[in-house]
């Protein structure tokens, strides 16, 4: 492996748009920042890069484990704080028929 390891980003990925709960959204991920720009292959038209570190995607159970790994391997890193989840107001079907409702009931 080369001497230059590049800059890594440690973050907690957001939940999938196809997911309603918070399951599988507690892991921390270490990914390398792109070291070189992607180029267009003139023959095939595919976009590619010689940056092999871009393929590395490591998952950790906690932030501390990810930081310890990066420091043990001598990897420069930036930590992104997780976004605060928006407050969710539970919707109740009975609210559609409650007394004193200000919105129109039909359509």
Gist?
By secondary structure, this protein is an alpha+beta fold. Helix content is 10%, strand content 21%. It has a single domain (7-83), classed as 2-Layer Sandwich (Double Stranded RNA Binding Domain), CATH 3.30.160.
What strand line-up does the widest sheet have? 5-2-1-6
Number of helical segments with 4 or more residues: 1
Q: What best-fitting shape do the alpha-carbon axes yield?
A: elongated
Compute the separation of the termini in Å: 64 Å
CATH superfamily: atu1810 like domain
Number of structural units classed as domains: 1
Helix-strand topology string: EEEEEHE
CATH architecture: 2-Layer Sandwich
The major sheet is characterized as:
4 strands, mixed
Kindly provide the radius of gyration, computed on alpha-carbon positions and rounded to a whole number of angstroms. Answer: 22 Å
In percent, how helical is the residue content?
A: 10-25%
- Strand % is 15-25%
Low-confidence stretches: none
What is the CATH class name? Alpha Beta
Mean pLDDT: 84
**Helix- and strand-based class?**
alpha+beta
CATH topology: Double Stranded RNA Binding Domain
Total DSSP E strands: 6
What does this protein look like?
The chain is an alpha+beta fold and 107 residues long. It has one domain: Double Stranded RNA Binding Domain. Helices cover 10% and strands 21% of the residues. The radius of gyration is 22 Å and the shape is elongated. The termini are far apart.
């Amino acid at each position: 492996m080369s001497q230059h390891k590049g800059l890594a980003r440690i973050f907690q990925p957001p939940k999938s748009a196809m997911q309603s709960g918070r399951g599988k959204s507690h892991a921390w991920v270490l990914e390398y920042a792109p070291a070189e720009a992607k180029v267009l292959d003139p023959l095939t038209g595919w976009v590619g890069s010689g940056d092999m570190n871009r393929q590395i995607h490591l998952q950790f159970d906690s932030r501390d484990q990810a930081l310890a790994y990066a420091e043990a391997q001598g990897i420069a890193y930036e930590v992104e704080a997780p976004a605060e989840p928006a407050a969710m107001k539970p919707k109740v079907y009975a609210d559609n028929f409650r007394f004193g409702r200000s919105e129109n009931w039909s359509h």
